[in-house]
Amino acid sequence: MFDRIAPRYDLLNHVLSCNADRTWWWRTARRFRHILERPDARVLDICCGTGDMTLALLRRRPEGAEPVVAADFSEAMLALARVKLAGRRVEVVEADAMRLPFSDGSLDLITTAFGFRNLVNYRAGLVEFLRVLRPGGEVGILDCSKPGGVVGRIFGFYFRHLLPWVGARISGDAGAYGYLPDSVEGFPPPPAMVELMREAGFVEVSWTPYTFGTAGLWRGVKAQ
């Protein structure tokens, strides 16, 4: 599915989020600037898609820093990421988020933008992230959420009815953009996701809402 929608993926992200996605990537990278500004920090952007989150991370990296690793399991997405990230200090690799090709305790930061909710098992994915992080390392999960109140009702109507219609017409793939609201519907609400991260072993877990809670950043730390 992700291979099929790759050619229109960037355009649809911008259109369907009303360009808010650019701000979300920037805010996420800024949140981890204390790690990104360290030249020796080892950074992974998993489920990187076409590389927009990776690009935001790279803009916070100093000259001569360790390359950021951008990884995804969709070869079509990675082909576009390689073009977008060409000439930058980045390694683009094909990898499964559930079985990361890194040794225990080898990374300082893992980010994932709008990919985590596609994992087949959230807890197992978190445990895998924890495995490859060094003590004191951090994870940032940027993803959609369902706001409450009036905003939630408006968002729900948009996500359930308008988004699949627009997505299908731009991408030519009705199934993919019918899947999107279903994946958000099945994703744990912020308090449940925070608790799941704690159960997996993360400490200092938090959630920061973006754009009235339609998206947000979950952050966790591997204990020292």
Description:
With 224 residues, the chain is an alpha/beta fold. The chain has one domain (2-146, 187-222): Vaccinia Virus protein VP39 (Rossmann fold), CATH 3.40.50. It is built from 10 helices and 7 strands. It has a 7-stranded mixed sheet, with helices on both faces. Helix 7 packs across helix 10. The longest helix has 23 residues, at 149-171. It starts with a helix and ends with a strand. The mean pLDDT is 89.
Put the structure in a nutshell:
This protein is of the alpha/beta class and 224 residues long.
Largest sheet: 7 strands, mixed
- Structural class designation: alpha/beta
Give the termini separation. Answer: 39 Å
Structure annotation, total helices: 10
State the main characteristics:
224 residues; Rossmann fold; 22% strand
Ordered list of secondary-structure elements with their pairings:
Elements: H1 2-5, H2 9-16, H3 20-31, H4 33-36, E1 43-46, H5 52-58, E2 68-72, H6 75-84, E3 90-94, E4 107-113, H7 122-132, E5 133-144, H8 149-171, H9 174-185, H10 190-200, E6 202-210, E7 215-222
Parallel strand pairs: 1-2, 1-4, 2-3, 4-5
Antiparallel strand pairs: 5-7, 6-7
